Amino acid sequence: MPAPKHLAQRAAKLREQINYHNHRYYVLDRPEIPDSEFDRLVRALEALENQYPELITADSPTQRVGGTPLPEFAQVRHTVPMLSLSNAFTDTEVSDFVRRIHERLELNEIEFCAEPKMDGLAVSLVYERGLLVQGATRGDGTTGEDVTQNIRTIHSIPLRLIGSDYPQVLEVRGEVVMTKRGFAELNRRQQDKGEKLFVNPRNAAAGSLRQLDPRLTALRPLEFMCYGVGNVENGSLPDKHSDILQRVQQWGVRVSAQLEVVQGLEGCLDYYRRMATKRASLPFDIDGVVYKVNRLAQQEQMGFVAKAPRWAVAHKFPAQEEMTRVLAIDVQVGRTGTLTPVARLEPVFVGGVTVTNATLHNQDEIERKDVRVGDTVIVRRAGDVIPEVVGVVLSKRPAHTETFHIPARCPVCGSEVQRVEGESAARCTGGLYCSAQRKEAFRHFASRRALDIEGLGEKLVDQLVEKKQVSTVADIFALTQQQLVELERMGPKSAANLIEAIEKSKATTLPRFLYALGIANVGEATALALAQHFGNLDDLMSADEEKFQQVEDIGPVVARSLHTFFQQQHNREVIQKLVQAGVSWPAMEKRIVETLPLAGKTFVITGTLSSMSRDDAKARLQALGAKVSGSVSQKTDYLVAGADPGSKHDKALELGVAILDEAALQKLIAS
Ligand code: 5U1
Predict the structure, then answer these.
(1) Which CATH architecture has domain 461-580?
(2) CA 224 to centroid of chain Cα atoms
(3) What is the second-level CATH architecture of the domain 321-396?
(4) pTM of this structure
(5) How confident is the model at residue 289 (pLDDT cuts 50, 70, 90)?
């Protein structure tokens, strides 16, 4: 039975609505309705089409994903060849390009259309009477592959153009790309499934578009960005490139939001610099910018050279990826004992600098990428991000390479290396004994919130460690004025002051002492909770992981870290020496936190307090059982606001958090 007229009309209306919202969502990035509402429209159309298959049209939004995989892609001959672009790598080369245009056109001021050069895969889309009839890759510029079924799965490509004033045949050209975020999500999914990871968004886009099964392409987050038109029949277009792109955009095709009309060489170079600074924050990878003479009549006058137009040039950014060879893999020990494998590379110029090292992050990453000494690898340096190895070129792997493993013992101190379950990092358990961790451990030990040794700064620590005057933090207390005077920039007066500060630091508190030890994952709040729970150091040092987990907010990772630290003989010896040197603290009462007056309450402190420092206020609130957090959220009970409180105060007002001034805080503490 044919579909009744009103249902045919309803199907047409639904198609129109879905296409409208699809365009707002995928092309304009301005959705009007929630996803659930959009899904409802699609389901309604599907139901109608199931009941009356004759209502299905080629441009129906339900028909994006075709059914059957292809045996291979058919070849497509481009009606108008798809040209490539000449490249310019320096300002001088751009200046030469502009000069040649001035000479040929005998004009001094040229208008250019400047666009980002998307790092994707060039494709051609052919629309006949507004209907998408063909999608093809660029191929060699003359012949490409017919990827229509795959192209149809890309939501930012309209299956039918909007409006009616388009040419009868319109070929739109541009790049199929993947957003950086889409790429990261795709790789996460690949990793979860144990499948091969893609090296970069461009490879992922190319691989996705060349799937023989369009259902697979449909699962990939691909997008399309138009940069021009090819074959145009029976219809007219504006006489400037920028206006043509604007028209194409009005017909529903996505065009770069960064497109600009600029004047002359200065305008081009200024655009290049602005895009270079924006590059890292753009949603897509771009590898340069393109300048095109804007007026079509002038383009025609310029003509072509070989396979590239004389009226356009790609001004490339320094490459962010290059190939090089792994000479060695070293393991660095960081300030908290984390072991980081680092690839030593044959020097390579990438991202504007010469790179000789790249982080391999951790054992999981090494296994995932299977990087081996001798491998040829792709190194990436994007923006100011530290260089990383993104993948191995397996076809170039030499014979007899070996898989790399993080060593079982610390390469610096020989202590056991532990891999914490659920964490990708491997850690040296050497703690204060490990010289790689020592400088940082000294800095941390002497810092204001730890033992607070005034004058024992970074430079001094470096000298003391390098001159081997101290090997563990306990040695600080054996330093003499004579030893200190011999250090650079240390006069008798400063040496005497430092000795006095060291002496003064011996009288501390148990939470400060625990924090000063620099145990992995033990910050100030954890140190305080530990001190309050155990009350003394002996009980704490003999606790097992289970006992540690009984402390509020301590989970298995921190418990393991604490237990491991206190089980190491050298750490116990350092602690013993510190106590022997006179480091001491007043006895602490064991506290059952739940019984304290401010238990369960979360405070945030902001602004300047006049009667005490913020640290003091924090310590006093914590002593009453409160938690003190650094930022205001729904979980905050009170904001303590001193003078000039700033944005935390605004946020607290917004969330309806109770605000205490200094007087109210003092009253609370006193009561
Ligand atoms: N943005 C942009 N990319 N791109 C690539 N424009 C552009 N134009 C091209 C190519 C190959 O070619 C035309 C100038 C012919």
Answers:
(1) Orthogonal Bundle (1.10)
(2) 23
(3) Beta Barrel (2.40)
(4) 0.61
(5) very high
